[in-house]
Amino acid sequence: MDDQLYAEERKQSIVNLVNEKNRMQVAELADIFNVTGSTIRNDLRELENEGLVTRTHGGVIKRDFQRSVEIIPKSREFTDEKYRIAERAVKLIEENDILAIDTGTSCRAFAEKLINSQLQRLTILTYDLEIALLLSEKTNYQVQVIGGAIRNGYPYVSGSSVALGLAGFSVDKVILGTTSFDKNYGHSTPNYETAEMKKSLINIGRIKIVLCESSKINQRSFKQFAKPDECDYLITDLQITREQQTDIEALKINLLMV
User: Fold this and answer.
1) Which residues of the chain have pLDDT under 50?
2) Which of 50, 112, 114, 179 is deepest in the core (most CB within 10 A)?
């Protein structure tokens, strides 16, 4: 009961602080209340659901305080399948790994699970600004953003500068999203530039891990970015069919279903 009372008092204090200062960072609030960043993020999620605050990347703003730039497109969806897939992917990560993380909702879900994991020391490369800001909340994570021009309406850097920025790096594991996967065509995406960026990630990774909901299997998009057997792990949900499972396993890919 005391813990519950303290939590309610803390949340009310958070609302008061945000209303006074217009915006606060997760790290600031964690220091003020002497709790973890994960606890603060849970508080902010509950407060947002109650309509009392608006969460931002790495922090929170007053409900009626309008941001000049809206970073997250409203159409981005996070399903239960994405979070289960993301959680399984985190189990493949080891302390002191060097990671390269793609853009997209599946990779954002992975970043959310990663920051709430027990892993303390990681080095991370990404061209997704939203993911970079989220992971930078964990002070022991070294986060490197690949520079270049931001794609209009999306929270990531795109274009030829990404390939140049990634060249010369070598990472332990690459985390990739995909729009479509076909056993003959491989992984593909509708955008040419995005496909080239994903190829650049694959080129620098020792182990390639693809996050792929089963609804994307047996589908093709405009531009291929990886051959069918080019990635080491494909993590999907339990809605995958037996036939699809057999086809993927025949490619000698590590298929993980959650």
Assistant:
1) 1-2, 65-76
2) 114
